[in-house]
Design goal:
Blueprint lengths: L2 H10 L1 H21 L3 H36 L1
Length: 74
């Protein structure tokens, strides 16, 4: 298997990972809504921010390959 094929297999899993992280964020937001302790709220909020950052990174990786494909076909 060449590198491009391997990347396509990995790239194909990105939407599922994004959806998984979105579910985790939704769960954490529900926790945050119920949380009364300020320090715990800060911890949960930091976790939400970390998952959001991961989603952003995955979107960048996903789009990067599309940009490379379009350059290759030009």
């Amino acid at each position: 298997m060449d590198i491009v094929e391997q990347w396509e297999l990995i790239r194909g899993t990105i939407p599922d990972r994004v959806m998984e992280f979105e579910r985790i964020i939704n769960h954490k937001q529900n926790e945050l809504y119920e949380e009364d302790d300020f320090e715990e709220s800060c911890r949960i909020n930091a976790e939400i921010a970390e998952y959001a950052s991961r989603i952003n990174d995955l979107h960048i990786w996903y789009r990067t390959n599309q940009e490379l494909d379009s350059r290759r076909h030009s």
